[in-house]
C-alpha cells in the first residue's frame, strides 16, 4: 500500500546521501572495491583491534516523527572512540574532498547517536581508510562535543524531514484521489476488462500474468489503470512500466495523460527515464564538473531542482530538459534522483532486468513492492540474452597490446596466446562452439583487469583511458561478470576466425533463470504483447512461475478488415531465393496496380532486399510509385524519415527487413498503410550457435526446432503483419509469400481472426500476371 512510502525508519546512509552530498558529478573511471572486497577489508581492520572492541554497533535516534537507524563499523569502549571504516585503492591523498565530507557526515551521525545513547558530553570519531593494495590503514581522528554533533545531525535530519513531510502530504492526497479515480472512457470494453481484472487480481495475490493482447485492445490503458488502482488496496507502492521501444514509452505517457486529465492538480507523480546518451545536453563534453556546466556543483544545485521537479505531475524527457536548462543541472542524474520519489516509472526494460539495474537496486534498498507492466514482452527474450552476455574483440586486444605500458602488457600477451590456441583448434570454422574456456584464460583476464585497475589507481589521468585498451578493459569486466553466472543455459562461441578480429562470446541462450531472479522482487507483474503464442514458449523462456496466469484477449478486429493471401507455389528458402525474385516482383507490381496505396514488403535479409529493390526499380520505372528501402545502419532521424514517407505520400512502397526497426512499434493507421508483403517465414539463420541452442532447447523443453526456429520466426511475421490494421475502421491486405505458410503447424500459430481461407490458396495457385 502507499503507506509503505511513509516508512518511519530511515537508514543513516539514505539520510547523508540525501542531505550531505556536495560537489560535482565526476564519471571519470575511478577503481573502487567490490562489495566483497569491502567486507574483507573491514574484517582485516577489526581483526587487529583489542578483544573488547565492538563491531557492527546498531544505533538509532528519533527526530520529529522519524527514526534514523544505522550500524557503526566499530567502537572501542576503552578509548571511547567510534570508527567508520572505508576501503579504497590508490593514494589516500587523492580521495576527493566531497567524498571525505560525506564519509565524515556519516561518522558524525553515528557519533551523535552514541552520545545520545551513552549520555556522554563528547566522543572521539575516527575515519579509517584501509588501502586494499598495500593493506595499510590510514587513521583520521577528531574529538567532537555532543552538542556540535547534535547540531550537525539535526541540520541534515531537518532537511530530510521537511522533504519527507512534503512526500507524505502528497501521498495523503493521492490515496483518496486513486480511490475516486474513474476509467477515462464511459465504458471499458470487454477485452480491456479481461486484462484489467487479471492485472488487479495479480496485484492482490502477488502472481504473474502473461497476457496476449492484440493491437487495438487498449492494453496499455488496461494495464496502467488497474495497477494504479491497486496502489491503495494492495501491497503495491510503485508501478514500473517497462518497454523495449521508445514508442512504447510514448504510448504509456499518453495513457497516463488520459488517466490523469487534470494534470495541474493531480497528486500522482510519473517519471520517464531516458538513456544518458539520449538525454545529455553536452554530448561532446566529459561527464565531470571540470568539463560540463551541468555536472558542475550538481549536488549544490540539486535541492532547488529537486523541489521544482517534484511539482511536475509528469517528468518526461522534455520537462527534465527544461529543468536542466533552468538550474544548469544534468537531466539524466536529476531523473535518477527523482526516481526515488515518484509513483510510476516508465523506462527501458534494462533499468529493471539488466545485470545491476537502477530500479531493482532501489527496490531492494527501500523495500518497495512494485508492480511490473512489461510491454512488448516477446522482445524480452532477445533483450535478456543480450543483457546477460559478454564478448571480447581480438582487434581491441591487439590494439591494447600496442598502447599498453609494461605493467599490463604481460597479461594481454597471455590472453592473446591462449586465444591463438583456440583459433588454431577451431580455425577451420567461421563460427565455432567452444566447449569450455581454458582456466588460464580466465586467470589472465583477471590479472589484466587487476593490473589495469592498479595502473589507474596510481595515475588516474593515464592516457590509456583514451585508447581501445580502455574499451577492452570494460568488455573484460562484463565478460568476467557473465562468467560468474554461466550455466547450462549459456554457450561460448568464437566468430570470424583467422581475421585478427575474432569475437569471443559468452552467450546467454535462455534468459529465464536470470529474469526470474528479478521478477521475484515484484509484488506482481503483467507481461503483455500482441504476440505471445504459444504461451508455454514465452512462459518458459521468460522464467515466469508455474502458477502464472495466461489470458488471451480477443481481437477487436473482424475478418473482413484484412484480406490474407498465400503464394502457394513460391519458396523463399535460402536455396530458392534467386528464383523467387521475379515472381515476388511480379506479384507486388500486380497488387499495387490493382490496389493503389502505400505498402511495405519485408524480406529475410538485406542482400535479398537489395536484389528485389534493383528489379523493382526497373519494373516500376514508369509507375508513380516511390520506393524507399531500409539500409543497414540507419540512425534515428533516418528511421523517422522512412516512416514519415507513408504519412506524406499516397503511393509509397517500403522495403524492409523482417525483425528490424520497421517490423513493429510503428503506427500507420488508415490510408498511411494499405498492405504488407512478407517474403519469408522469419526463421533465424542456421549456424552452429542456433543449432547448439536447438539442442539445448530440445533437452530442456523437448521442442528444440520450434523453440529455436518456428516460434521466433512466426512471432516476427505476426508483428510485421500487424502494421496494416491499427484501428476498427482500417482495411487492407496481407500477402504471405512462401508456400510453407500452408503447413498446418504454421497455420495454427497465426491469429485466428485472420481471413485465411482455402479459396485464397486456390486463387494464388496461378502465376502472377506480368506488369
Automatic annotation (TrEMBL):
Domain called Helicase ATP-binding: residue spans: 178-430
Keywords: 4Fe-4S, ATP-binding, DNA damage, DNA repair, DNA-binding, Helicase, Hydrolase, Iron, Iron-sulfur, Isomerase, Metal-binding, Nucleotide-binding
Residues that span the membrane, as ranges: none
InterPro entries according to UniProt: ATP-dep_Helicase_C, DEAD/DEAH_box_helicase_dom, DinG/Rad3-like, Helic_SF1/SF2_ATP-bd_DinG/Rad3, Helicase-like_DEXD_c2, P-loop_NTPase, PDDEXK-like_dom_sf, RAD3-like_helicase_DEAD
Record has Iron as a keyword: yes
Top-level taxonomic group: Bacteria
GO molecular function, one term: helicase activity
Family: Belongs to the helicase family. DinG subfamily.
PANTHER family named in the record: DNA REPAIR DEAD HELICASE RAD3/XP-D SUBFAMILY MEMBER, REGULATOR OF TELOMERE ELONGATION HELICASE 1
Protein name as catalogued: DEAD/DEAH box helicase
Amino acid at each position: 500500500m502507499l503507506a509503505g512510502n511513509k516508512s518511519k525508519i530511515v537508514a543513516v546512509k539514505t539520510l547523508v546521501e540525501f542531505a550531505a552530498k556536495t560537489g560535482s558529478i565526476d564519471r571519470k573511471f575511478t577503481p573502487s572495491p567490490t562489495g566483497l572486497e569491502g567486507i574483507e577489508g573491514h574484517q582485516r581492520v577489526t581483526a587487529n583491534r583489542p578483544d573488547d572492541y565492538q563491531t557492527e554497533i546498531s544505533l538509532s535516534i528519533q527526530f520529529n516523527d522519524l527514526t534514523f537507524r544505522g550500524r557503526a563499523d566499530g567502537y572501542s569502549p576503552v578509548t571511547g572512540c567510534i570508527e567508520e571504516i572505508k576501503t579504497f585503492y590508490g593514494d589516500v591523498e587523492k580521495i576527493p574532498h566531497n567524498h571525505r565530507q560525506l564519509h565524515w557526515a556519516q561518522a558524525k551521525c553515528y557519533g551523535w547517536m552514541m552520545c545520545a545513547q551513552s549520555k556522554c558530553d563528547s566522543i572521539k570519531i575516527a575515519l579509517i581508510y584501509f588501502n586494499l593494495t598495500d593493506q595499510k590503514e590510514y587513521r583520521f581522528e577528531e574529538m567532537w562535543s555532543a552538542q556540535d554533533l547534535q547540531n550537525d545531525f539535526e541540520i541534515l535530519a531537518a532537511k530530510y524531514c521537511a522533504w519527507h513531510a512534503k512526500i507524505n502530504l502528497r501521498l495523503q492526497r493521492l490515496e483518496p484521489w486513486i480511490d475516486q479515480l474513474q476509467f477515462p472512457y464511459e465504458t471499458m470494453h470487454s477485452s480491456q476488462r479481461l486484462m484489467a481484472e487479471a492485472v488487479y487480481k495479480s496485484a492482490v495475490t502477488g502472481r504473474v500474468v502473461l497476457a496476449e493482447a492484440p493491437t487495438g485492445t487498449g492494453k496499455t490503458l488496461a494495464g496502467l489503470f488497474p495497477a494504479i488502482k491497486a496502489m491503495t488496496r494492495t501491497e503495491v507502492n510503485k508501478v514500473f512500466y517497462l518497454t523495449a521501444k521508445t514508442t512504447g514509452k510514448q504510448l504509456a505517457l499518453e495513457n497516463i495523460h488520459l488517466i490523469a486529465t487534470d494534470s495541474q492538480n493531480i497528486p500522482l507523480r510519473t517519471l520517464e527515464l531516458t538513456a544518458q546518451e539520449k538525454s545529455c545536453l553536452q554530448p561532446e563534453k566529459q561527464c565531470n564538473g571540470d568539463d560540463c556546466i551541468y555536472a558542475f556543483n550538481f549536488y549544490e544545485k540539486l535541492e532547488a531542482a529537486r523541489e521544482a521537479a517534484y511539482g511536475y505531475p509528469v517528468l518526461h524527457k522534455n520537462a527534465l530538459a527544461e529543468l536542466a536548462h533552468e538550474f544548469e543541472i544534468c537531466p539524466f542524474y536529476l531523473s535518477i534522483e527523482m526516481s526515488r520519489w515518484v509513483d510510476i516509472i516508465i523506462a527501458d526494460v534494462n533499468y529493471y532486468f539488466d545485470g545491476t539495474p537502477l530500479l531493482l537496486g532501489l527496490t531492494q534498498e527501500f523495500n518497495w513492492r512494485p508492480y511490473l507492466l512489461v510491454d512488448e514482452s516477446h522482445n524480452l527474450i532477445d533483450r535478456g540474452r543480450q543483457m546477460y552476455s559478454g564478448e571480447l574483440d581480438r582487434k581491441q586486444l591487439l590494439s591494447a597490446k600496442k598502447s599498453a605500458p609494461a605493467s599490463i602488457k604481460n597479461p594481454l600477451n597471455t590472453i592473446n596466446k591462449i586465444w591463438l590456441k583456440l583459433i588454431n583448434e577451431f580455425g577451420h570454422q567461421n563460427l565455432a562452439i567452444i566447449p569450455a574456456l581454458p582456466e588460464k584464460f580466465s586467470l589472465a583476464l583477471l590479472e589484466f583487469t587487476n593490473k589495469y585497475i592498479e595502473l589507474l589507481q596510481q595515475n588516474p589521468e593515464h592516457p590509456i583511458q583514451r585508447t581501445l585498451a580502455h574499451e577492452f578493459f570494460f568488455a573484460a569486466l562484463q565478460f568476467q561478470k557473465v562468467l560468474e553466472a554461466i550455466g547450462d543455459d549459456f554457450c561460448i562461441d568464437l566468430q570470424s576466425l583467422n581475421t585478427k578480429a575474432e569475437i569471443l562470446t559468452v552467450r546467454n541462450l535462455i534468459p529465464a533463470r536470470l529474469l526470474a531472479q528479478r521478477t521475484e522482487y515484484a509484488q506482481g507483474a503483467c507481461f503483455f504483447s500482441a504476440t505471445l503464442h504459444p504461451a508455454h514458449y514465452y512462459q518458459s523462456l521468460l522464467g515466469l512461475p508455474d502458477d502464472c496466469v495466461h489470458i488471451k484477449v480477443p481481437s477487436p478486429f473482424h475478418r473482413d478488415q484484412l484480406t490474407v493471401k498465400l503464394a502457394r507455389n513460391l519458396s523463399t528458402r535460402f536455396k530458392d531465393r534467386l528464383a523467387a525474385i521475379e515472381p515476388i516482383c511480379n506479384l507486388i507490381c500486380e497488387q499495387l496496380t490493382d490496389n493503389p496505396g502505400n505498402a511495405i514488403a519485408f524480406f529475410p535479409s538485406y542482400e535479398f532486399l537489395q536484389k528485389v529493390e534493383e528489379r523493382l526499380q526497373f519494373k516500376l520505372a514508369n509507375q508513380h510509385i516511390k520506393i524507399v528501402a531500409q539500409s543497414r545502419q540507419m540512425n534515428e532521424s533516418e528511421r523517422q524519415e522512412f516512416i514519415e514517407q507513408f504519412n506524406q505520400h499516397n503511393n509509397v512502397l517500403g522495403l524492409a527487413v523482417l525483425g528490424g526497426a520497421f517490423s513493429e512499434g510503428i503506427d500507420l493507421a488508415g490510408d498511411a498503410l494499405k498492405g504488407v508483403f512478407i517474403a519469408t517465414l522469419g526463421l533465424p539463420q542456421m549456424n552452429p550457435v542456433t543449432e547448439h541452442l536447438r539442442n539445448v532447447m530440445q533437452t530442456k523443453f523437448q521442442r528444440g526446432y520450434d523453440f529455436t526456429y518456428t516460434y521466433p520466426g512466426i512471432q516476427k511475421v505476426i508483428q510485421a503483419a500487424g502494421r496494416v490494421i491499427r484501428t476498427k475502421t482500417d482495411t487492407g491486405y496481407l500477402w504471405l509469400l512462401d508456400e510453407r505458410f500452408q503447413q498446418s503447424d504454421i497455420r495454427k500459430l497465426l491469429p485466428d481472426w485472420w481471413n485465411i481461407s482455402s479459396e485464397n490458396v486456390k486463387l494464388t495457385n496461378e502465376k502472377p500476371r506480368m506488369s
